[in-house]
Design goal:
Elements (H helix, E strand, L loop, with lengths): L3 E7 L16 E2 L2 E2 H10 L5 E6 L4 H10 L4 E4 L6 H6 L11 E6 L7 H9 L7 E7 L8 E5 L2 E6 L6 H4 L3 E10 H7 L17 H7 L4 E5 L11 H21 L2 E3 L5 E2 L5 E2 L3 E3 L3 E3 L4 E2 L4 E2 L4 E2 L2 E3 L4 E2 L4 E2 L3 E3 L4 E13 L4 E13 L4 E2 L4 E3 L9 E3 L4 E2 L4 E3 L2 E3 L4 E2 L4 E2 L8 E2 L11 H18 L1
Parallel strand pairs: 1-4, 1-6, 4-5, 7-11, 12-15, 13-16, 14-17, 15-18, 16-19, 17-20, 18-21, 19-22, 20-23, 21-24, 22-24, 23-24, 24-25, 25-26, 25-28, 26-29, 27-30, 28-31, 29-32, 30-33, 32-34
Antiparallel strand pairs: 2-3, 6-10, 7-10, 8-9
Helix pairs in contact: 1-2
Bound molecules: uridine-diphosphate-N-acetylglucosamine (UD1) and calcium ion.
């Protein structure tokens, strides 16, 4: 096994994004682009990872650390090109022996498999390899000048001759290079080019000049598409979703209308899961086998047990743990709550900061009143509890097993096992009142219309 060090370029603010947020923190499938690149690289178990960021990018450091806890950082103060950016990693990589893999923070769809293919090209005769692709439209990309299976040079768009412009084989930007060779060549980079930048791509010609061969690995164009503006961001999102929907279906989920279902990068979907149209998954969702998610549901940070039924029009928020075979129906919101096996909340309900025991039934319009304007409070509902419709459960509150709560109650005190809780204004019935009322109103209306 060769040692690998990841260097991820993330210094650009991305002016065309028109955003206060650094470009690499924009999200694809609820995960930052930087997170996507780091996840693809982390799967190779690198010895070290260095993220190159621009000035004032504490948020980039925080995000990278979330994915790679011992990630190192180097600041590129001035944007002087990709070669200059990589050279910023030299100090952090002091003493590292092995292969440096350069990834771009704004190329989120890259797959670990392609990185493995690239690394597999590295051997004693090829201490450097470039990940290339056949571009449908090569404009804007660096072109690969090849001889047989080796690369002789990479020519940037602005520096290409008319002949070279016709080359479709392009540079993804992702390269693997022996660390010793990298630090030997980097000082030789010059900014004698159209952009007056230190191009990482010039390493190829510098290597060839020293009789070092540079290998080529190929991947799909879709994997190495980069993001410079928000239209490209949405294009990448579409690509990701297409890929993830296919993965979910291959894994045994039925998607009635795949194009209307949106997954997060970390969504886990079991087998025999049915997902109806217009379902959105935010981050942190695990769906067990046999779950049905009906149309127009929004789910994030939730775990859904086997055989549960969610929706239509359900909202599961972070910390929702839905037990096996439970039902969460239309216009029901669950936040930071455990719903027991087989429990049901079928209509128009808010359950927040609560436990609902197995087999309990939560009637329509029930609200756990968990917030007093300052603090959140907990509601504990036992097993086989029947909560009548339109009940307000004022937390903190503990409802014992087998309790019945009468419809319309406002429950402000704990209720012991098997008791009935009922709070209701007395009901009055006035015989004939409605008929008299209609008669009076009809006369008044007739008088008004005469005037
Ligand atoms: C680069 C490649 C080109 C390739 C293309 C693939 C070079 C010179 N060119 O061109 O061959 O086809 O990517 O998309 O490498 N960055 C920094 N600091 C800098 C400059 C760039 O961190 O000083 C980062 C950017 O934030 C970005 C990445 O490096 O993540 C690529 O830079 P960019 O300017 O987009 O390069 P391209 O012109 O697209
Ligand atoms: Ca680019």
């Amino acid at each position: 096994m060769i040692n690998i060090a990841l260097v991820v370029l993330a210094a650009g603010m991305g002016t065309r994004m028109k955003s206060a947020l650094p470009k690499v923190l924009h999200k694809v499938a609820s995960r930052s682009m930087l997170g996507h690149a780091l996840s693809a690289g982390a799967a190779l178990q690198p010895k070290t990872t260095v993220v190159i960021h621009g000035p004032d990018m504490a948020a980039v450091q925080k995000e990278a650390t979330y994915f790679i806890s011992d990630c190192k950082f180097a600041e590129q103060k001035e944007r002087r090109g990709t070669g200059h950016a990589v050279s910023m990693a030299q100090e952090a990589l002091q003493g590292f022996k092995g292969v440096v893999l350069v990834l771009y923070g704004d190329v989120p769809l890259i797959q670990t498999e392609s990185l493995k293919l690239l690394l597999a090209k590295i051997d004693a005769e090829h201490p450097m390899a470039v990940l290339g692709f056949e571009a449908a439209n090569p404009t804007g990309y660096g072109r690969l000048i090849t001889s047989g299976s080796n690369i002789l040079a990479i020519r940037e768009e602005l520096d290409t001759s008319p002949d070279e412009k016709r080359i479709n084989l392009c540079n993804s930007g992702i390269i693997a290079i022996d660390a010793q060779l990298l630090w030997q060549l980097v000082p030789k980079l010059s900014d004698n080019n159209a952009k007056k930048e230190l191009y990482l791509t010039d390493l190829v010609e510098l290597a060839v000049a020293e009789n070092v061969s540079v290998a080529l690995a190929l991947c799909d164009e879709a994997e190495v598409a980069g993001v410079n503006d928000r239209q490209q961001l949405s294009g990448i999102e579409q690509q990701f979703q297409k890929r993830y929907r296919a993965k979910a279906m291959i894994g045994g989920a039925t998607l009635v209308d795949p194009t209307s279902v949106f997954f997060a990068a970390d969504t886990i979907i079991g087998q025999d899961v049915l997902i109806e149209p217009h379902v959105v998954f935010g981050p942190g969702v695990t769906v067990s086998d046999g779950v049905e998610i009906l149309a127009f549901s929004h789910i994030e940070g939730a775990t859904i047990g086997a055989g549960a039924r969610i929706g239509p029009y359900a909202r599961l928020r972070p910390g929702a743990e839905i037990g096996a075979c439970a039902h969460i129906g239309n216009f029901v919101e669950v936040k930071k709550s455990k719903i027991g096996t087989g429990a049901k909340a079928n209509h128009l309900t808010y359950i927040g900061d609560a436990i609902v025991g197995a087999g309990s039934n939560i009637g329509a319009g029930t609200i756990t009143c968990n917030y007093d304007g300052y603090e959140k409070h907990f509601t504990e509902i036992g097993e086989k509890v029947f909560v009548g419709s339109n009940t307000a459960l004022v937390a903190p509150l503990k409802i014992g097993n087998g309790v019945n709560i009468a419809a319309g109650s406002v429950v402000t005190a704990d209720v012991p096992e098997d008791a009935l809780a009922l709070s209701r204004a007395p009901l009055e019935i006035k015989a004939g009142w409605a008929k008299r009322y209609r008669a009076v109103k009809a006369v008044r209306k007739a008088e008004k219309s005469k005037v």
